[in-house]
Amino acid sequence: MEEGLSHGTADGLPEESRTRAGNTLTGVHRGLGVAVFAVLAFVVNVLGTDTPAPWRDEAATWMSTQRSLADLLSMLRSVDAVHGLYYLGVRLWIVPFGDSVVSLRALSALGVAIGVALVMPLAHRLFGLTAAVGAGLAYAVLPPFTWAAAEARSYAWAGVLSCAMALGFWVAHRRGDWLSWLVYTVLVVIAVHGFIYNVLVVLAAVGLSLAWLRPGQRLRALVATGVGLLACLPFALLVASQGEQVSWLTTYPVIITDVTMGVFWGTESVSQWVGTAILVLALAVVARSWWSGRYRGELGFVVGWLLLPLGILLALHPVIPLYHRRYLLATIPALALVLGFLVARLRWVWLRCILMIVLILGCVPGYLDSREPLSKLTPAPAIKELAKHARAGDGIYVVESDENGLAWSFPVPIGAMVDLSTPLDDGWRAHQLYSDSVPVDSLGDRLTAIDRVWVWSDVGRLDETEAAFALQDFAEVDRIKAKDHYRTVLVLMERVA
Fold first, then answer.
1. Average pLDDT of 124-150?
2. All structural domains of the chain with their residue ranges
3. DSSP state of 78
4. Could you tell me the pTM of the whole model?
């Protein structure tokens, strides 16, 4: 072991004994064990992902695929660069698996499974075999990940990328050669390009662990990390130039329960309280081990990974609003590692089993909550009203732009209606994520065969839109206010005889 790092394991064995014991579980057996955990994690996390109604963030993922590769790359220069690498991955995924809501969410569930497959060997390297089992189980059931598995966005893959970067760091640290550090540098670049908040993970986790590396290794770690972050600078500047996309964070409420429990355990209260109690116990065990002088480098890395990005975002938030609990998904693998460490430090097997059972049961409410039909900020209630009253062949016109991707999100009843607001010209795809709705006075022949139009509005300018349709000989005959997050208003306009 390196000077200043631990000389034992979480199982209480000296390093030499652990190495001999570990050799009996190398190769096929250990790989098979990780594969079994990963498959179980996929099954658990993909179940129920067809139940929650989609929302506009997921629709944005789908919309990104509805353009040529050249148009996508062009669009990313002006909007959504932060998700660019994920969008490219989605394009590959939909070739064999399609672009349905269920398919895109299955890609996220796969991300959780791969995260399990990475966190287990990482935990094994840091704290031993028992910790690897505990970390793998925890990763599969933690509410932030079970939520991310049902979300057609990049959050589940944020955990994968941060795990890959961390594993690369520790492999390079153990081996000490420049080739391993080069691989780690490449992983830093990929992790940051895949999820910009991984910059905080690199700075926090690697930065806090440097004090316990040997001088030679410390220099290599600094150089490898510095080169990786320097290579990410153009991307970071591009993302910063698109900061208007998160301007809404200025009104995002930062409350104590969110930053102490919600970040780590989701929004369901039972999962929050059970999980927080376990985490407090785990951190107490971590503190005891750290003060005893064991695992200081490893624990510094993991605790820095878990807590410092949150602290940095909270410190910056009053000046540069960047905090949202879902942006901290990249830190949740560290929570799995801390829980795995706690499991390994318990002396009796029966106590370890009880702890894992309590953890799993405590996470169940959060899991079920993420699988509710209205668990997202979805316009589904408005769609339900539309399904009751719309007829096949009715027109639908979305005020300003269709940010909810209604045709993809809700093929029934939207598929039976005539889309009036989407431009026929695809030129917008090269620079915009969402298309501006066609002006009513420019619809021309698209209105000729339509006698009923539903105007969909969850933003302003509804009155202007109604007035524009009135000039096209349509009059309001019904108005419905949906009970959804967006306070959607549906206005039925019929052609005046």
1. 97
2. 15-47+80-370, 380-495
3. T
4. 0.93
